[in-house]
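2024-03-11 09:14:02 INFO worker-7 job=invfold-0412 stage=load source=structure_tokens
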């Protein structure tokens, strides 16, 4: 059984949310489905549990843009005190 959700948008684009059951980085990835016969899906963002991060800071968020292969944002969701982060810190 696939762990995917698909949503067709009013403009015809299709988003897919996929569960990642990796034991080290479990999470959810959101992709834009390819629109042509030779096109591939594009990862838009993901949220993961990064077991390499300090305890209480394992939940991380990542975002991409269409024109870059590397993430434009990757950061922990929580502050040092364990509360949700309220500022966006861009990577790079």
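2024-03-11 09:14:09 INFO worker-7 stage=emit residues=92
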């Amino acid at each position: 059984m696939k762990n995917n959700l698909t949503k067709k948008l009013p403009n015809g684009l299709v988003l897919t949310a996929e569960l990642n059951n990796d034991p080290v980085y479990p999470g959810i990835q959101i992709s834009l489905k390819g629109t042509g016969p030779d096109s591939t899906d594009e990862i838009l963002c993901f949220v993961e549990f990064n077991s390499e991060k300090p305890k209480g800071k394992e939940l991380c968020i990542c975002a991409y843009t269409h024109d870059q292969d590397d993430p434009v944002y990757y950061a922990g969701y929580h502050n040092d005190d364990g509360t949700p982060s309220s500022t966006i810190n861009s990577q790079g």
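2024-03-11 09:14:09 INFO worker-7 stage=report msg="The mean pLDDT is 85."
2024-03-11 09:14:10 INFO worker-7 job finished
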